[in-house]
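Notebook B, p. 112. Complex prediction, attempt 2.
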Amino acid sequence: MSNTVVVYHSGYGHTQRMAEAIAEGAGGALYAIDSDGNLSDDGWAALDAADAIIFGSPTYMGGPSWQFKKFADTSSKAWFTNKWQDKVFGGFTNSASLNGDKLNTLEYFVLLAGQHGGLWVSLGIKPANVKASKRDHANRMGSYIAPMAQSDADAAPSEMSAGDLETALLYGARVAGVAQRFASTQVA
Amino acid sequence: MSNTVVVYHSGYGHTQRMAEAIAEGAGGALYAIDSDGNLSDDGWAALDAADAIIFGSPTYMGGPSWQFKKFADTSSKAWFTNKWQDKVFGGFTNSASLNGDKLNTLEYFVLLAGQHGGLWVSLGIKPANVKASKRDHANRMGSYIAPMAQSDADAAPSEMSAGDLETALLYGARVAGVAQRFASTQVA
Amino acid sequence: MSNTVVVYHSGYGHTQRMAEAIAEGAGGALYAIDSDGNLSDDGWAALDAADAIIFGSPTYMGGPSWQFKKFADTSSKAWFTNKWQDKVFGGFTNSASLNGDKLNTLEYFVLLAGQHGGLWVSLGIKPANVKASKRDHANRMGSYIAPMAQSDADAAPSEMSAGDLETALLYGARVAGVAQRFASTQVA
Amino acid sequence: MSNTVVVYHSGYGHTQRMAEAIAEGAGGALYAIDSDGNLSDDGWAALDAADAIIFGSPTYMGGPSWQFKKFADTSSKAWFTNKWQDKVFGGFTNSASLNGDKLNTLEYFVLLAGQHGGLWVSLGIKPANVKASKRDHANRMGSYIAPMAQSDADAAPSEMSAGDLETALLYGARVAGVAQRFASTQVA
């Protein structure tokens, strides 16, 4: 089995629900970045030991939350010593608008994975974009490099789209599968 | 009155319908890039004389169509002589998926405007992103830097979202208004 | 005269020196975001009253610093009430590498300005990119949407490129000039 | 051995020289997109059969050349049938300016790989960004998600930076190595 870790910040619970679906799909561990942008020592240790790291954040004001960015800036310690080099990476985001600059958050996760010298796993699910497409279809958001969820500004986490959560579950499994194939070829 | 020109490529007619709504809002002229990526001499002359230029293209394979990009590459002639410096710029795009990397197409338009030394006009309409939001509301796509439209892969141009077209109309008027204010302060 | 405000975070002083050059060019005020990501009440009031806002941050781990992002997230209060709608915006960044994902930081500033319904001012200076180009030439970085500076990881702020600082000065003047033309057409 | 294919467009020979270095590092095949944006049938067949695909284009007017984009749009045929799903992808670009929006071209390659459901391989070489750094050092450009080269506007391909070419060579070997590890775990 590969060792996949989901590290995320959630403001109101929607991104957390998405994180849980991804961790379930990946059979992996979940570590939350707190409201001050801090991650526990256990969390950092888990990331250092992981085969795959999946980043999660809401999209606020066109990008990842500042709490996630504080985590990213703190990861410069791992960067200096190449601790995360060649790991497998993925990411996900949620926001209230259908678009809402969510792509920018996902592209930032790709850049962060690139800073660490990693491999990025795309979503790999065709978009549901015909007249018959429904809110509970996988990849109804039509994203490509990683999964997106959309939750109305006045909707509780319990009201999230079943399609968005299914997409998250499938992506978690996909990233873990890539990491598994990759880990099996590590030089002993 | 300001002189606004909409220059666009459309593959199947959806982007053209959006272009028409924008031109109507702007009280401006429309020039189409053809299926070989060429623009008429009249089109180039109109762009050189414009106060504001609005770029339009479908999003294909994650970015503007190659026909639009051929137009952009050909605009290097205007670039060399700073012909479009300080003009007002805007843009728009349509694709089949809700997201579908449309943000990347709009960001490319910002970069192209930047290459030409221009000013960029954002959409300026708050997103419709609550439970009561409907397909015919302005900015139901939740875009910010410029308008997006989404048309199902099996939907004709006649079936486009009324909200997306209203958004386009409002944006055309907004860009022309900015250009008008700006043009009125030109040194004689 | 237009009222231009430069709001920035600087970690080690390089971005601050760039901010000072921009404020000098703009004849504008400077407000620093502190090491906890906070801005003074005077700073927020100055931004609300400004004709033009210029964002500045180092590029850390592929994007703006978390302190800048905390400021951006806090600006959601102004977003809710459209306080910054139709203002003129610009931005700038510094990092140790020639590229170092600096473009992503500038693109984020464009997205943030877009979230607020603003107008973006590009750099408007042709790149110095021939064999005879030198480190003290304006826009030696070859940036377009806004100015970039590059400072070696082991170089003090006092060792910054004269070309980068000249670029910043010219950009400050450009943004203030655009804001001035724009402000002169405000409806009384 | 993995089967790596480099597919690129070059306008004036600089991107071609970079492509040759990458193919040498990868031990892979090279296919050029012609000046009309077309690729030979042999080229398309090689891409379909490849373990890894590496995209190359100059950065023109802030993005990949229209010839590369025509190739990308034509790859929608492979997209419809998921032919390139789960392949390993990489990319590279050259332009005259130090920055020159090259990051946008590389980010487009990531999006295109994402559209095809692929895995992206980052550069994995720390930037040379201290006072002692020289033009012939690997990753002197300070790029992360993939290699960049910079060639002065008045410099021939023979005058390209030795550091940029070394970077390209190392990246080719890296992508091929990832593809090799990945291919070795294919279900028989």
